[in-house]
């Protein structure tokens, strides 16, 4: 089956099968949050991005193999509603951006800074710190050695624009700058984007609209 990235709350997961990594996307909760389960194909170790809601559904997706770690992309409550229950059930180590960890009510084992490596088995992800949606939002970049990069953007980048900066001009200026310099300038058009809500996109689909986003201010 071809991966589309189109999932609905209560519906089946969608699985993106890469040579070294399997990415399972599932939608959970009243705000249609995306959670992503990453599985290293060489070791079967698993990592969860955003234990957003519905621990029962997430644990069912994780299965009996459990997870070694869970990464919370940012401090907003809709992205960690199931975190305590998932950690209690799996014993997973928790990761979050250094400047958002204090806003997450589950202790963070690993404070993540810009450029840090987050591993799942033999697969390495690079964290980039983007400021604006929250002070400590992180995105995770997987530079697939067999293909194009993949980036998990939390609420920093969506189809059609950057994340909500709550009508704060300084926060918007910071976020659009970080998204441009750390994501668009660093990665090619083929890069697949996995956002915190809704459908996936690519950098190539969004890149032509960057001037429009800057002009509108959101």
From TrEMBL:
CDD domains named in the record: metallo-hydrolase-like_MBL-fold
Keyword Hydrolase: yes
Coiled coil: none
Keywords, in A-Z order: Hydrolase
GO molecular function: hydrolase activity
Gene3D superfamilies, alphabetized: Ribonuclease Z/Hydroxyacylglutathione hydrolase-like (3.60.15.10)
Domain Metallo-beta-lactamase: start-end pairs: 32-197
Name of the molecule in the record: MBL fold metallo-hydrolase
Native organism: Streptomyces coelicoflavus
């Amino acid at each position: 089956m071809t991966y589309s990235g189109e999932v609905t709350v209560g519906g089946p997961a969608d699985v993106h099968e890469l040579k070294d990594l399997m990415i399972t996307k599932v939608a959970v909760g009243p705000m249609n949050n995306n959670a992503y389960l990453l599985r290293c194909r060489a070791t079967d170790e698993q990592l969860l991005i955003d234990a957003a809601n519905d621990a029962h559904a997430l644990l069912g997706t994780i299965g009996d193999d459990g997870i070694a770690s869970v990464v919370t992309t940012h401090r907003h409550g809709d992205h960690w509603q199931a975190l305590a229950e998932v950690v209690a059930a799996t014993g997973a180590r928790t990761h979050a951006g250094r400047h958002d960890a204090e806003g997450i009510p589950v202790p963070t084992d690993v404070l993540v800074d810009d450029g840090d490596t987050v591993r799942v088995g033999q697969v390495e992800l690079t964290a980039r710190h983007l400021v604006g949606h929250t002070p400590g939002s992180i995105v995770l970049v997987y530079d697939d050695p067999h293909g194009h990069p993949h980036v998990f953007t939390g609420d920093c980048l969506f189809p059609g624009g950057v994340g909500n900066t709550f009508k704060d001009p300084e926060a918007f200026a910071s976020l659009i700058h970080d998204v441009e310099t750390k994501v668009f300038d660093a990665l090619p058009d083929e890069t697949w984007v996995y956002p915190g809500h809704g459908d996936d996109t690519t950098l190539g689909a969004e890149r032509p609209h960057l001037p429009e986003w800057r002009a509108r201010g959101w």
